[in-house]
Amino acid sequence: MRTFEFNGERYAQASRHQKEWGSRLISGLRLRGCESILDLGCGEVNALPYNLLILFYLYNIKERGIVMSLKHGLLGLLNYSDMTGYELAKAFNASLSFFWQAQTSQIYRELNKMEEQGCLSSRIEVQTDKPNKRIYSITETGKAELRSWLKTPMPDELLPTRSEVLLRLFFSSERTTAENIEALKQIVASYEAQISGLGAVEASIREYKPLAHTDMDMLYWDLTADFGRAYSKMCLEWAQKCIERLEASGQ
């Protein structure tokens, strides 16, 4: 059996990229100074904290940013009423999908996980003239999880910090003014269609009124819809103004 002598200098040289990549990632994160690092006692000491922070934040971006918010969205809907998976997907698409996207398959996978975690329970309702259906109910554990999530600090950003539209626009002097105006007209058409379709939001609020526990539920639903109306209107007016300024440039 061959043996090798550990060469610390060579290892540090080979792993320097870990520290470089970690430094770049950390510089772009909003660290609050209260984060903790678990030192597993392996690897080059200067690179280890960066490796662990990368894993920690990638986990949070993937699990908490996507899965956990879907989980709480489903818990919130079940807190109004027991529903089947089909009814949940329908309610999700009629309300939450305007600001949080999820495929039906994702919803069913998350329901299975939530039941394993004890956040919800399910029962089979036997039907004679139709296939049996599974009905989901939120549990006390699920209600506690929902309340705990709602009590966490509200994120201070309403919109994503990345926009391919704005990134492209920033460098659009490389294209002709006519090409850029045409691209902006497509954005105008898109938001005009969104605004014309916002009537479906009011219809959804009326449709699900029986699920509301109090009038305050409907008020908060409408406040959420107000953001969609205001945001779509703002984007439409911004794109129209861009077109006006480009046309006035004479280029």
UniProtKB/TrEMBL annotation:
Record domain Transcription regulator PadR N-terminal: where: 74-147
Domain Transcription regulator PadR C-terminal: 161-247
One Pfam family it belongs to: PadR
Gene3D superfamilies named among the record's database cross-references: 6.10.140.190, Winged helix-like DNA-binding domain superfamily/Winged helix DNA-binding domain
Organism domain of life: Bacteria
Protein name in the entry: Transcriptional regulator PadR-like family protein
